[in-house]
Write a structure and sequence with these properties.
It is a single chain. This protein has 14 helices and 25 strands. Helix 1 packs parallel to helix 2, helix 1 packs across helix 7 and helix 5 runs parallel beside helix 6. The two termini are 22 Å apart. The longest helix is centred in the first third of the chain and has 14 residues. It has a 4-stranded mixed beta sheet with strand order 2-17-19-18. By secondary structure, the chain is α/β, with parallel strands linked by helices. The protein binds shikimate-3-phosphate (S3P). The site of shikimate-3-phosphate (S3P) has 11 residues, from helix 1 and helix 6.
Length: 447
């Protein structure tokens, strides 16, 4: 079904967004290995998190839902039905984290998913989990992936791809197998697995490597800054790590909030999103908004269940272009489609590099963004690892293709709100993967 989006005449206000998808996945999947029940509050009702809840239920977790509170009762004994096939839907996080958990559990299952997920690369988890002693087999290293778990060996690993999903897969493998795992990150990725284990369990330690300032050996009167290690973060899970269970209060999802905050940026108006997650490894988008000229204010900042949260107000202005590359891209990994749309409304040319990872997300997001921007009359160059976007004053309404990807649909729905003339977008239910209420929320702030 096609949805028509007309340009907004009135825009601004306050809203809250559903709970953070990444944290909800961790709550659901860690319940499989927990010693006691986990009560997850503000659990988002979306297709991706339902994939993780359904998977947990296959391991014998009893899932009780009362409004947005989900209580997860772990099984007395870990088991799976014979020849289990676990459908992870569209969710890469469910598939990759479960690959680790099953690898360390001594159980067997086949992981599969929808067409998009079956195209996505799994070698990044297959290689390290195989090195730990599990057996994982999938044609061309993709789903359907047969995972045969076993008692794994203690493992130390530096991530080859900066991916929180890979890091979490290895941590879950260690937790399930009761073996120690050390994961080193050259570029730190979101740390929700570490935070949830710390909040309702015990046995994980994190070392942040700080640069040292020392006399320059060439000219000792000067100082130089040096990284003492080749990595920036080290996560160590001991063989004794356990999940006891308890309460996890999930803050609003900053990646969902980013679409509404971007709308404030483009319109020059003000939007406040309340109770949104402000984990420092997830707030690069707020830094980006400041860098391109917006005002960003945070109030009522607190930490609950190991995760920072607060209210964020963004006031837009005439936007500036920016060059984005390196670690910044990892911090913006889910927000790049929205960043690219904002760039279309900015002065000057925005260049995004080091973003080849976007080609293997729910869709080829570099291609999807460039195609839709071109349809809206924006000059956009498609690079192997990025985009070159020429900002302009006006963009035109168009027939937008979501490519079945929730973040493409949401980013271009925002573009359509500020385009000249109406737009249509295919298959609007695609937003249900992360935020089924997206269009209702949008109509509460734009008319
Ligand atoms: C996620 C990690 C990121 C992100 C995805 C959710 C997670 O993927 O893009 O939407 O919850 O761990 P990668 O770890 O593959 O970068």
């Amino acid at each position: 079904m096609k949805r028509t989006i007309k340009p907004a005449r009135k825009f601004g206000g306050t809203l809250s967004v559903p709970g953070d998808k990444s944290i909800a996945h961790r709550a659901a999947l860690l319940s499989i290995l927990s010693n006691g029940p986990i009560v997850a509050r503000n659990f988002p009702d979306n297709a991706d998190c339902r994939s993780s809840l359904n998977a947990a239920a296959m391991f014998g977790v009893r899932v009780e839902q009362a409004g947005s509170t989900v209580t997860l009762h772990p099984p007395a004994k870990l088991s799976l039905p014979p020849d289990a096939i676990i459908d992870c839907g569209n969710s890469g996080t469910t598939a990759r984290l479960l690959a680790g958990l099953i690898a360390g559990s001594g159980l067997e299952a086949t992981l599969t998913g929808d067409e998009s997920l079956r195209r996505r690369p799994m070698k990044r988890v297959i290689d390290p989990l195989t090195a730990m002693g599990a057996s994982l087999a999938g044609t061309e290293n993709r789903l359907p992936l047969k995972v045969v778990g076993s008692k794994l060996l203690p493992f130390e690993y530096t991530l080859k791809v900066p991916s929180a999903q890979v890091k979490s897969a290895l941590l879950l493998a260690g937790l399930a197998s009761k073996c120690s795992v050390v994961v080193r990150e050259e570029t730190p990725t979101r740390d929700h697995t570490e935070n949830v284990i710390e909040a309702i369990g015990e046995g994980i330690t994190v070392r942040e490597i700080k640069p040292v300032v020392e006399p320059d050996p060439v000219d000792p009167r000067r100082k130089r800054t040096r990284m003492p290690e080749s990595f920036k973060r080290e996560v160590a899970l001991s063989a004794q790590t356990r999940i006891d269970g308890g309460d996890i209060d999930i803050p609003g999802d900053i990646s969902t909030a980013s679409f509404f905050l971007a709308a404030a940026a483009i319109s020059g108006k003000s939007i406040t999103v309340t109770n949104v997650g402000l984990n420092p490894l997830r707030t690069e988008f707020l830094d980006h908004l400041k860098a391109i000229g917006c005002t960003v204010a945070i109030t009522d900042k607190t930490v609950v269940s190991g995760e920072a949260r607060g209210n964020v107000t963004v006031v837009g202005s005439q936007l500036k272009s920016r060059k984005l590359h390196g670690d910044t891209i990892v911090g913006l990994i889910d927000e790049i489609p929205m960043v690219a749309v904002m760039a279309a409304f900015a002065d000057g040319t925005t260049i995004i590099r080091d973003a080849a990872e976007l080609r293997v997300k729910e869709s080829d997001r570099l291609m999807a963004v460039s195609e839709n921007l071109r349809r809206m009359g924006v000059k956009c160059g498609l690079l192997a690892d990025g985009l070159v976007i020429e900002g302009r004053k006006e963009i035109t309404g168009a027939d937008i293709q979501s490519y079945g990807d929730h973040r493409i649909a949401m980013a271009f729905s925002i573009a359509a709100l500020f385009a000249v003339g109406p737009s249509t977008i295919d298959e609007d239910n695609v937003v249900a993967v992360s935020c089924p209420q997206f269009y209702d929320l949008l109509s509460s702030i734009a008319s």
